Each structure stands twice: as C-alpha cells, then as structure tokens.
Amino acid sequence: MPLFFMKSDWKFSQINLVLKDCCTHFPIMKKLFSMICLALCACLTLACGSAEKSTLHYEPELIVTDSLIIDYLGNLQLLDFKPDRSEYLLYDFQRSELVRVDQKGTIRQKANRSMDGKDSYQSRFFITANYRDNGDLLIETFGGLFVYDSALTLKEKRKLPYELATGIIGGSRVTLPIADYLYAFSVGTDDRDRLQDASSLHTYPFLTAYDLASDQVTAREPMPEKSQMVQNPGVYRSMDPIPLYRDGLLHLMFMYSPEIYVYDFPSLKLKEVLNLNPEPTYRQLAPVKNNESFDRFFSELASSHYTGFAHSNGYLLTSYMAAAPQEEVDALPKDVVGGPDYLVVRDKYKNPYYQVFSEKEKVWEGKWDVDLKMHKDVIYSTHQPGVDPQVQERDEVVFYFYELK
Questions:
Q1: What does each C-alpha distance from 170 to 22, 152, 218, 283 come to in angstroms?
Q2: pTM for this structure?
Q3: Is the pLDDT of residue 204 over 70?
Q4: Over the chain, what is the mean pLDDT?
Q5: Pairing of strands 242-246, 46-47
Q6: Is residue 183 helix, strand or coil?
C-alpha cells in the first residue's frame, strides 16, 4: 500500500494526514493508527535543526520513547503517577471525574469524589492530588487533607495546620509527598493576608515541611533571598514553586524567577542555586502593586514565566513561555481581558522555549514544535510533534513520553 512508502523529505504532519485518510477509508486500521504514529515519532526525532537554533554548540534530540493510549471520549489532565508508573491518575474537569489508568492505557476506575457521599472530599474543587510511595492517594482541598486507598475509598480526613498558598486548583504542584513528610508552600491558618503583603515576602516562611505521622509542621523557611518575588515584591498570579524530589534533595523552580533552588529535606536548608540564564527571549515579569485591575494580565502577557523542568539521561531540560512585545501589549484595549485582539497577541507570542543543561552548564536554548509538560522527571505531551492538536482523534486520549539524547 502507498501508506508505507513515504518520501524522505515529508514532514510528520503530512504523514499524519495520509494515515488519517487511510483510517477514514479503512476503519479496521483505526486502532493501529496511534501505534504507527508512535513508531514514526520515534524515527522522526526532534532535533534542534528543525527548531529555532541558539548560538550554543549542541544539537539535542528529543526522542519519543512510549505512549499511553486511553479509549476515552473527553479531555483528561495528567495529575500524577505511581513511582513505578504502573498507574496514572487523570482528571476530567468537565465531568469532575478522577480516572485511574494502568500502564497499558486500560481504565481501572472512574469516580466523582466531589459529590456528597462517604468517600467525598467535600468540595467542588480540589487543589492537589498526589500518590504516596505506599500507594495511597493524597487529595488536598482548602478544607483539609483526604487520604484514599488504591480504589479511591476514603481512609482518613484531617484538618491541616496550614493553608495552601496557590492560585492554581485541580492539579496544582503546591505540595509533594516525600516519604513520611509533605512539602507544601503554605501560610498559617490566620495568615492568608500575607500573600498580598509585599513587604513581608522576604521574611514570611512559606516553604513548609509537614510530618504526616506526627501531624506537625517540622520546618518552615522563607522564599530565597535571590528570587524575583523577594527582589521585586508585588502581586503575582502564583508564587508557589514547582517541586521535584531527587537524590535526597528537594528542587524548587519558581515560575517568575529564572533559577532552580536545591534544599535539604525535611530541614529545608538551602544548599545550591542553579542560575538558568535565559536568552533575551525571556522577559522578566514586572509585578503589579495591587490586584484590583486587569493590569496583572497585561503585565503577564508582556513577560515570561517558567513552566517546568526534568532530568533525562544526564541532561536537565527546562521550559518557559516567551513574552509578547511590549508595544503590542500597550496597544491592546485595557478594559477587557480575553477579547479577540488579546487572544491574537497571546496565541502569536506565548509559545514555549526550552533550555538544555549538562553538568549545570547551559548547552542549548531554542524552540521545538511541541508543547512539552514535565512532572517528576517525566517528559510528555498530549499531541504529536508538529501536529495541530485540533485535528487529532476525539475518541481517545494519548500521552507521548520523551527522553533527551
């Protein structure tokens, strides 16, 4: 069949269209489609030759190593996975359903725990959902901590001695279970106003270590002195960093600060700082001084923020969103956010850029034609490289997993 005879200069998007056309006329091939695409992705690696090159002398290869294909009609967000990746936890925001999936993509369970009932987390929204090493699932809401077993049956509910300090709900990275502890970016139960108090950002101990066994906060530390939130105080959309526990150390990346901070845990003593040194594509956010107008949205449009980091085969990969030109942001009407003009500027300029580090030295910075997500040193995307996500199949959800080489 001509399906398998492809010109060497074809792009992945062209191959994808041929496969889709074939699936339309030969329905029996539909289930094979995603596996064929995976094989093609593995062969057609994303090298910086197809990206926007930096001046550094390194050509990273982003290799598709695996995929998770789920027979599901709807949109699913990846929340977490067990340490051995034998199970993935996903969430359907439209149906308010938690979905457990095994490593082959088979759905083990779908459950709505936001409704009333003995296993409910007693809230319409949750903030975080994380697996512990023992297989239990921890779900935190503004009302407390809910501990579930592997079948999403509620085992325990407790009121926490702190409140989570984040502007993100439903999959926030504001907490991270680490053995018998829980890292959290938090405020005391009576200190929520501290988030809006710019004068105390350099002294208030937001970083928190909580002992799950003793139900006690064992350590608290302020944000690092070098971070942009301390150096340039103001109102930020969310100040909580992205956490990663690796090799016995807690790594924290603040969205609006181009560094990675490495802490001993659970003592929360700062041990090391990695400066990310982004190129001029990155523009530092100038925070607004109050939260009563739309100024924050336009300030963010004209600035950058980091979105994730992961380690792969000896490399460190980071990602940040580029900034829209200040003059184009200034020309937008300021009485509405999300209008047609605003969306045109956002969609044109707010695209991901990537950095690769080796031995703490930046060796490459540029663009790939894929929107990568990173969680616990796993790199993944929800669409094929070079393919518009709007043209993908709607009756299955696919996650593609990557490594750097």
A1: 38, 17, 27, 28
A2: 0.86
A3: yes
A4: 85
A5: unpaired
A6: strand
